[in-house]
Amino acid sequence: MSVIIFTEHSNGEIRKSSREALSYGSALAGRMGVSAEAVLLGTVSQDPSSLGIHGVSVVHHCADETLNTADTRRYTSIMAEIATACGSTVVIFPHSMNGKAVAPRLSARLKAGYVSGATRLPDVEKGFVVRRNVFSGKAFMDVLVQTPVSIISVNPNSFGILEGEGIAEVRPYHTSVGAGRVVVRETKKVTGQVPLGEAELVVSGGRGLKGPEHWGLVEDLAGLIGAATACSRAVADAHWRPHHEHVGQTGLAIAPNLYFAIGISGAIQHLAGVNRSKVIVVVNKDPEAPFFKAADYGIVGDAFEVMPRVIDAVRKLRKG
Amino acid sequence: MKILVCISRTPDTTAKIAFGDNNTKFVTDGVQWIINPYDEWYALVRAIMLKERDASTTIHLITVGGADVEPIIRKALALGGDEAFRVDMEPMDSYQVAVQIAQIAREGQYDLILTGKETIDSNGSAVGAMVAELLDMDMVSLATALEFEGSSAIVTREIEGGEEVAEIPLPLVISCQKGMAEARIPNMRGIMAARTKPLKVVPPVEVAPLTGLVSYTLPPARSGVRLVPADQPEELVRLLHEEARII
User: Fold this and answer.
1) Which strand (E) or helix (H) includes residue A143?
2) A44-48 contacts, C-beta under 8 A, 24 or more apart
3) Are B139 and B132 in contact, with CB atoms under 8 Å apart?
4) Is residue A194 predicted with pLDDT exceeding 80?
5) How far is B99 from chain A (nearest CA, A)?
6) What are the domain boundaries of chain A?
7) Nearest chain B residue to A197, by CA
8) How is residue B206 annotated by DSSP?
9) A239 to chain B nearest CA, in Å?
10) Is the pLDDT score of A98 beyond 90?
11) Rg of chain B over CA atoms, in angstroms?
12) If contacts are CB pairs under 8 Å, which of residues 137-176 in chain A contact chain B?
């Protein structure tokens, strides 16, 4: 009996969303009275035993360089092998790009119920009930897993990262799963930026900023506080900003600690993507903007007058 | 090339979300239904673009649902596509849907199966990957571009903080998102043609769901906005630092 956790890395570093999944899996294993074990595929720059700080006692490490390339069909086969060998009753994934692709595959492979985008720990008192987001963040759904094995992907920024002291036992794992058919030709990464889905702080701009030449207001504030940048759909559609920055119902749904919206009116579709943020700040010159009803702090005012002073004040705060 | 496009029905993006029957049923009164935007704008339109480039392409559509989803599949046929399947069942979870699609796909021998990246009501992002697994096919999720070289697809997908371009031999399942295509509106000729396109109603394969619904909950409302005067933006920064302790 064990909870196993699919642990992703990027450029040799363990991803933040995976540290959260490890923390979640360890807390769940504690509730169930079983062991928490990480599965690490590929090579990393640090000693895998350090994952013990998040509560796992074992790291199954398949140190095969070819696994540094994501091949979700191959990952699924290896996860199925390890889950079966360990007699795992729960398999945890981060709700990341790869997690979203591997977890449902594993569900179909093992005929194990899958809960996508869990927002809190399962209730194990009455069966195995997990809360997840539905209606693009406008509601939650409690799901009962009806199979002996459960698969869960954990929504980023919903559980948090737990760190303690602990060193995990590293067990080298050799897989018989052969190479896949996916050949990666090119990886284009925007370096130095916080990935939006994982960001704790997000500064976002809308049509109220009037054009891409005014994005300095968004970027300056984001740079000062270490936030990711985002935008509304209108802005992405007008090609002022890249599509991957679009948050909302048909873009990315995010749940940062801070969502700072500048010149965004807050249409229902936009709110659906951001209303799980812990603190929402809205700067908009229209007092009737619907976003104020969903915000915690707000300024009714012209962003071009307000924001330079906000940025100055943050700069002073950082220096002080 | 033979393409299967998976179509879901979802409430319109502005629909009011409310629940009845002890929070176990979505209240559908007054709800406008649409084709799930990701299925329509990206998966279906991309398939239509491929057919426009090569007229020998065949596009089949599939949906899983009761008779009430037929207006949606007709609308999809009006945009494009040669024929459609409706598997006649009210699915309880993604797995049940995936099993039905896999069954039709197995019989149809498709080169490409396209889905949207997720539905905007269930947000599971699971059906495409499950179909791929059930058919033992490769799958690319969250694709933003698709081209072909010989019998391989060249697919660009989103990864954290960037993009990855990969070459994968067909057959293949792809979940599509923004970038794949642009939204279109059906024209009168398409709407007329859709009326006579074949829509086959297929009985479902018997399969138990793996998960069940317990109940829905609405998120707690925010306590209200605290407005800071526009001539004191420094006060906002102080509140975020000292009260919210967030910057």
Assistant:
1) strand A139-145
2) A44/A9, A44/A12, A44/A13, A44/A14, A45/A12, A45/A13, A46/A12, A46/A13, A46/A14, A47/A170, A48/A168, A48/A170
3) yes
4) no
5) 9
6) 2-172, 196-319
7) B160
8) P
9) 12
10) yes
11) 21
12) 137-147
Residue A192 has pLDDT above 70, yes or no: no
Residue type, A40: L
Nearest CB to A184; choose among B93, B166, B247: B166
Phi (first) and psi of residue A202, to 5 degrees: -135, 130
| A20-47: average pLDDT | 97
Candidate from B11, B162, B168 with C-beta closest to A189? B162
* Domain A196-319 classification at class level: alpha beta
CB of A185 less than 8 A from some CB of B: yes
> Can you name the CATH fold of A2-172?
Rossmann fold (3.40.50)
Does residue A249 sit at the B interface (CB-CB below 8 Å)?
yes
Residue of A nearest to B129 (CA): A105
Which parts of chain B sit beneath pLDDT 50? none
CA distance B110 to chain A (A): 18
Chain mean pLDDT for chain A: 95
The model's confidence at residue A126, banded by pLDDT at 50, 70 and 90, is confident
Q: Measured between CB atoms, does A208 come within 8 Å of chain B?
A: no
Q: What is the ipTM, given to two decimal places?
A: 0.95
Asked if A183's CB is within 8 angstroms of B244's CB, the reply is: no
Of B93, B124, B247, which has the smallest distance from its Cβ to A314's Cβ?
A: B247
Q: Which of B202, B194, B200 is nearest to B81 (CA)?
A: B194
B12: closest CA of chain A, how far (Å): 10
Beta-carbon separation of B225 and A276 below 8 A: no
Query: Cβ B160–A10 below 8 Å, yes or no?
Result: yes
Q: Which two tokens stand for residue B127?
A: 């059906």
Q: Which of A72, A246, A268 sits opposite B178 (nearest CB)?
A: A246
* Least Cα separation, residue A63 to chain B (angstroms): 22
E strand segments, chain B: 2-6, 9-11, 19-20, 25-26, 33-35, 58-64, 83-87, 112-116, 138-149, 152-159, 162-169, 172-176, 199-202, 211-217, 226-227
Determine the Cα–Cα distance for residues B117 and B124; give it in Å rounded to an integer.
9
* Residues contacting residue B55 through CB under 8 Å, at least 6 positions apart: none
Helix (H) or strand (E) holding A30: helix A16-32
A247–chain B Cβ distance below 8 A for any pair: no
| Right CATH for B2-214 from 3.40.50.620, 3.40.50.1380, 3.40.50.720, 3.30.450.20 | 3.40.50.620
Which residue has tokens 């295509």? B181
> B2: exposed, middle or buried (C-beta count within 10 Å: 0-12, 13-18, 19+)?
middle
What is the residue whose two structure tokens read 């396209």?
B114
